[in-house]
Structure formats: C-alpha cells, structure tokens
Amino acid sequence: MRPVLVIVTALATLVASLGFALPARAATPTKVAVIVGPVGEELTPVYIGLAEAAATEAEVRGASVARAYSPNANAAQVLAAVEGATIVIYLGHGVGTPNPYSPNPNAATTNGWGLNGPNAVGTHADAWSDGTLAYYGEAWIAANARPAPGWVMIYSNACYAPGASEGFDTPADEKKAADRVSAYSRAPLAELGASAYFATDFYEGAAHLVGTLLDQPSLPYGEVFSSEPRFSAAGLARLPHGLVSGAETWLHRSAYFEGKLDYWYAFAGNPAASLADGAAGRPAGNEASAAAATGAVPPLTAIDGLAIGMASSYAESIGWEGQPTIALPLELGGGMPDGDPTWVLVCADRCASLPIVDSCPCFVGTTDQRVANLSHDAWRLLSDAPLEEGLIRVELYLAPAVIPADSPDA
User: Fold this and answer.
1) Model pTM score
2) What is the architecture, at CATH level 2, of domain 306-397?
3) Exposed, middle or buried by CB within 10 Å (0-12, 13-18, 19+), for 339?
4) What is the side-by-side strand order in the sheet with 31-36?
5) Would you list the domain boundaries of the chain?
6) pLDDT tens profile 10-19
7) Which residue of 110, 167, 265, 370 has the fewest C-beta atoms within 10 A of its own C-beta?
8) Comparing C-alpha atoms, which of 377, 383, 381, 384 is closest to residue 357?
C-alpha cells in the first residue's frame, strides 16, 4: 500500500470518528447544447454573441457546454452536441407551420433547425437553393437527436418559433400563433421526451432562461417564463396545446422590436413541472416521449435521402479487394449488386462517393445500431480515426441533391 493512500485512509477514519461528513463526490455536470445555424455573414456573428451570452450563463453555474456554431454547425456536429443534453438552445433560421410558402407542411424541413448544409463552404452562407443551408425538420430531429430525459428546448431568434410572422407577412392572430408554437413544440414534447419548450425573440432571452433554469431547477416552468424582465401579465394567453395531450401553449404578445406589437415569446408544456422533475415533468399521455426518454432505439430511416448514425468497418468484399466500398442495412438499400453498383455519398472527416457492394446486419433494432459498414479503405478515405476506435459517426446521402464542396467528387 502506498504511503499517500495510508494517510488518506487514516484521515477519513479520523474525520468520520469526529462526526464530520466527507464531501460528496461531484456529480456529473448538467450538459447544455448551444447551436447557431448560418444566417448570413453579417447576422451570424450577432447570433453567436447571443449564444455565447447563454453559454456563459450556463458555464458560470457549473454546467458543461457543447457548442455547435456556424460554420461548423452541420448535422453530425449538432447531434453530437445535443446527445445527453439537459437544455438545448438553438439560434438560427426557422420555418414553422403555418407559413406563407406552402399550404402543406413538410415534416422533413419545418419546425426544426437550419444548419450548415451539405454544400457548406466554411462560411456563414445561408442559401437553401445551393445547399449551404439545409433545414432539418421535426421528423429528422425526432429520428436522430438523443437529448437527456426531461430535457428543455429553447429557441432564440428563430422565425415562427414564438408564434410571430416574418416581417413581410401579415401579423399573426392568436390562432395562427398558437398553431405555430404547438407545431414547433410537438416533436420535442411528444417524441423526444422534453418537459418544456421555450421560444424567445427578446435580446439575450435565452441567456436569462438558462440562468434561471440552472439557478432554480425546482422553479415551475410557468414561473420561469414569467421571470423574463420583459414579461407582461396583460400580454399572456394560456391555451390548451393543440397537438400534445396534457400540455399548454402560452403566448405572450407585447410591443418590442421597433415598438411592434407581436408574439415574441412563448412556452409549451406543463407549467407546473420543473427542470428538477426531469422525465417526470413531461406532459401526460405521450407514450412516444416515454420511449424516447428511456433511450429507445431510434428508427433506422433516411429523411430526404439523409441518414446519420454510426458506421463500423470490415476488411473488404470479394471482387472489390483494395477498394473503398460500403455495405448498408437492407432497410437503407444494402445488398450485393446485380450489375453496376449504386453509389452513395458518405461524409465523416471528409466526404467520398462509395459503391454499395453488400448488406450488413448492422445490429438494426438494438442500441448498437449502425447505418453502414465501411471497408478498411473506405474508413481511411473518410476519417483520420484509427480503425481500432471501432465506430465513427457518418452522414449517408442516399440521394444527394448537392455534393459537398470538400468531396473528391465535387
């Protein structure tokens, strides 16, 4: 036994004999994910400043902060930041429903996050048309994001999230605002086990919310909402949630930006619950959220041709020795080619097009589920990680509309 260990053991015995309690081992810090999507070269730094204000509020209270900021806020980086997070904050473009662009909402692109797209070029460019911006909607988030049970979603300065219309559009009435907040909050509350949803357009509103949540985790969400300095009880409307049983939608209409009267602030969930309640604070009657909160296996699916997940490796396929190849689960189109193989775009540290030459079981339906099996040459082409790591996170473009600029095929 080492002398230091003897001294420590003796000290512990002495302290215990005197009736003093030894300090408890520090608990794992609360994880806060902060996402900033691209909103153009001028506005993105402003959003990053707002994000850093929220991140600082979290860090000074002992939380760990995972940042995913443009130009690096791609799908893989964002999912890694969100994994296990108790609070998720998003700043960036938003497309809610209803909106003036389409009468038919598309769950693949609406009520979610606008991130650096597959054709991002290392800037804050935010054009959906050329792929520098991509909208990852509620369906993609529900299928791929894995925050902590009972987590809290905070939208900051994202169009439609608190109910307001865009500046060029007709101002929202109460029904339209409520429909937007209900639509934006449905997937977090009903599918991903969130206990609360907040949306704010107020300056540093997210920083105030995260500070209050961490300072007073037992404070009911309704009181967290009303603690906002610009809150006015006269501007509050409380309504049943339009899409989630047991939840409420709170709308706050007030004068703010350039004196405009609009819906700048919103809440959805159970106002009597709190962050300290964790998974128990979810709105009642949502079996899907219970499954998500207990770590249910995400469905193996591709949204708009994109699947994201872990990839393992194998040596090589017969007839394709020494070449980078990929095997996919049958659910994603895997199988031995009958003639010329199908090629898919795969991105990890780098992007490359790979031929599908086989299928893989890939532990589908288990907690070890993978989206692909890479030949050793494919692994080395895509990643600098050693093969010994066993798994890398990849983006799999089954039907890529735009080839990323750093791809060898671009």
Assistant:
1) 0.69
2) Beta Barrel (2.40)
3) exposed
4) 64-69, 31-36, 87-91, 152-156, 196-200, 261-269, 248-255, 236-240
5) 31-293, 306-397
6) 433 433 344 4
7) 167
8) 377
